[in-house]
Amino acid sequence: MDDDAAAAMYRTRTGAVTTDRGDGGPVVFAHGTLMDRTMFRPQLEALAPEYRAVAYDLRARTDQYAPGYDLDDLVEDCDALLDGIGEESAVIGGMSMGGFMALRFALAHPERVDGLILIDSMAAPHEAEERETYGQLVEPLEGSTDPNPRSLAEGVTGYLFGETTREENPELVAEWVDRWATYPGAAVYNELHSWLERPDVTDRLSEIDVPVLIVHGEEDPSIDPTRAEPMLEELPDARMELIPEAGHTSNLERPEPVNEAIRSFLEERF
Q1: Which domains, ranges and CATH numbers included, belong to the chain?
Q2: CA angle 247, 248, 249 (to 5 degrees)
Q3: Domain AB hydrolase-1: where (predicted)?
Q4: Residue 258 to residue 172: CA distance in whole angstroms
């Protein structure tokens, strides 16, 4: 099924684009802040021979980045995505912000979730100091349709990539910096504010009764792996895989071990 046919209903409602590969059981991926659906290309290529692997652009990468929105809006967008690709339910995977959304999607629409894959994410909110730092970082971008300043795009690499990637794979980092420098400022401002003040959902994790895989880069500079560990205690059926030499975008920085963990999770649980 080509992208246009698979996502017609979703695009009509949200303006987003999907990449849809393979046939089998569906696995849907939602990206994190500043990223887009292409960050999951390694996972789609690895899973397509056995599964229907789908990645989609969230609101910030479409012309619907303004006005402001929140994670509940992104939850309903994901609901529309499943309608658009004709699936009643799927394994939902999310990286960082995508994981924040995926947890809330599982709570709001449990009948549509067969399992969760949480990549470099957490259930708790960011600390007050972090929220202030992030808020100040994007404050100059509010309402701007101009591209992000390149200095900002270069400055956030330390949040998104691990030390090993920044040292050993500068081409990957530079590719994303070039992309970030093209985004409208307001798109980044609204994207970050969609989750910045999110409430804690840790006390509701026991309601999620599907299998959960937690994947986390050992070098994650934004969300230390220890901040994801509490989910293991609260989720009824969860396991965690640490990815060495990977940062906040572990599935992009070290796709091989991440793909192995995801395939093993899917083969064992579904």
Answers
A1: 3-126+199-269 (3.40.50.1820)
A2: 95
A3: 27-261
A4: 17
For residue 260, give every residue at least 6 positions away whose Cβ sits within 8 Å of its Cβ, in sequence order, or none. Answer: none
> What is the 8-class DSSP label of residue 37?
G
Token pair listed for 118: 């949480």
Written as one string, the DSSP assignment of 88-110 is S-EEEEEETHHHHHHHHHHHH-G
Counting Cβ atoms within 10 Å, is residue 151 exposed (0-12), middle (13-18) or buried (19+)? exposed
Helix (H, G, I), strand (E, B) or coil at 125: coil
Q: Which of 73, 71, 77 is nearest to 11 (CA)?
A: 77
* Tens digits of residue pLDDT in 74-107: 999 999 999 999 999 999 999 999 999 999 999 9
**What is the C-alpha separation between 19 and 1, in angstroms, rounded?**
10
**Residue pair 122/227 in contact by the 8 Å Cβ criterion:** yes
CA–CA distance, 122 with 86 (Å, rounded to integer):
29
Q: What's the pTM?
A: 0.94
The Cα–Cα gap between 229 and 231 comes to: 5
Give CA 193 to chain center in angstroms.
15
Q: How far apart are the first and last CA of the chain?
A: 23
In this structure, are residues 122 and 231 in contact, taking their beta carbons and an 8 Å threshold? Answer: yes
Q: What is the pLDDT of residues 196-213, one digit of tens each?
A: 999 999 999 999 999 999
